Amino acid sequence: MKLSSHFYAMVDPLAGHEPVELATILIEAGARVLQLRLKDACGRDFLAAAREIAALCRKANAILLVNDRVDIAMLSGAAGVHLGQTDIPLRAARKLMGPGAIIGISTASLDQARAADAGGADYIGFGPLYPGGAKRNASGKGLAILREVRAAVGVPIVAIGGITEQAIPEVLAAGADAAAIISDVVYAPDIPAKVKRLLAFDAAA
User: What's this model's pTM, rounded to 2 decimal places?
Assistant: First the structure.
């Protein structure tokens, strides 16, 4: 799998945005890789939002990935799923979703990254890279470990955790293929302008 952008957009209601509204803003601003992350939503609401956003993504030639929930990803017509270390195992998800689905795996160590790569993940998330961020991480893994992960795996790496617009150059230079950003985007006073600046790193690469 090749990620089409260095910006991996997160549809997360952290700042109070309604998910479909936020996805619409992100897509209209040019985002083409989106993950729907609704940790506190019930299954019915999660599926309804996923179906609407999946339809928006298809019209825009964008990719929607669903956080954690293989069932929601399959029922909504999303392109794939992003799984954490305690979610349904990668092999089981692949059996359910088939070879054409995109499956990403969250990793927080070199061993986890290697295991996800060997297990057939299409990409890995790695982090938290920096302190702070949506999860208010007390510490981050840092760029040195990201470089080690880059040297150890062949799949694309999406760095996550406390990443801001200003950090993008060093994150990409350390080996990440893309950066997943929540707080710096959803709390931005002008989200479309923020997204356009993040997408400018694609042209500069």
Answer: 0.95
